[in-house]
Protein: cellulase
Amino acid sequence: MKNLLLITVAFWCLESNAQKQSFPANIKFDHGLMASTKNSLDAQNNYDLWKTNFVETCSNGRYRVKFDPSSQTVSEGIGYGMLLSAYKADKDLFDGLWLYYKDNVNGNKVMNWKINGCSETIGQNGATDAELDAAFALIVADYQWGSTGNINYKTDATALISAIKNYEVEANTYVLKPGDQFGGSQITNPSYFSPAYYRAFGVFTNDITFWNQVAAKSYTVINNNLTVNNAVGGLVSDWCEASGAYSSQAGGYNNGGKSYTYDAARTPWRIAVDYLWYGNADAKTYAKKSSDFVRVNLGGSANIKDGYNQNGTVNGQWHNATFVGAFACAAMAGENQAHLDASYTDLKNLNEPNSYFNHTLKTLYSFLLTGNFYLPPTATLSNENFDIEKSTVTLFPNPSADRITVSAPGKSTISIISSSGSVIHQQKTTSELTEINLANQSRGVYFVKISNDDFKSITKKVILK
Structure:
């Protein structure tokens, strides 16, 4: 009987740590295009090369990602590595990277941004993009392996998301700070904005309203930056104020943070994810602008250089994966299959195996392009047989000047009703977030009715100003 009990316990432990999604996942996104020639073997080869060239073993099961110079590690690299290893189902590497992250945190429990080798802090305090990537990677890990093993991924994800909320989002404005010790409305970094993650954070921590506001603010800042500086396409600046203007605090960065260079270059990738996963309209608009800039203004992916002024003039000289791959991801929302296919091929043929930044980002981009960078089912709201009266339904912003976003279970029906009782808009939702444009309606009070197939409903009031 004792032996039977031991066998049963051992079997349960194996089951509880069983992998949910092997690689390749080959997900076909509900929104956007996929390259005709996509092949997960490309992502596999990029990952293998990345792991060989940039992962180094530390003691006690820890791993680090080599930076430039290779003796150093930055928190950004740990976040990237956690994403890659979680999607690749490489549990040993994932756990070692996360343990390294936790070994090197500051008092706010976010990783000090630069480490010499395996343990010596040489750059103190957090860089927010690292926290965002690491937190989302933990959500993927919880889906992949569950949280009953040696590391409770769910608890750790929740704690890190809380730290981001408390220390890396500016209080009352929802502006993402670039670090736990600096920034906000006076200086922020659009390439850190990860609205798709925020929506997942909201569901994962039951804090949907807050994180949806952070997502909405991301688009406000990006659109401000493009408008204020008369930008071409989606060429955001590396750094800016929340108003979109250039920041006086960015003097120490390349060209005072006023150009589209190695920070801003990641923005099309991060925003494209929000369209591919959620179908967000603002994400599609931005991604299409970015893709069309390459297709129309530059004449194709082969002509991309590593830097632009916001007016579209070139200030870079190299053709590399950091820029090519992000624009290729944007082409997934660009509505031109031939351009996406050419962009995919261009990225595939770039060979920069010893460049930490270029090859790491190439690998991340290739995961998205091949359907291996996906939203885990555990980070979405249930769409089946929901009880609308017990569901969390929110809408924002309220009051609104033109658009509102309704957060409600998928497969519900949204009706917009005027104060006189007329239904002016109605649609069936396809995901938990639905954006509705009311720009053509008169100012005043409207009612938003969310109903399910059992004819139960919730009604919210919105003010159009």
About this structure: The domain at 388-464 is CATH 2.60.40.3080 (Immunoglobulin-like). The chain has a mean pLDDT of 91.
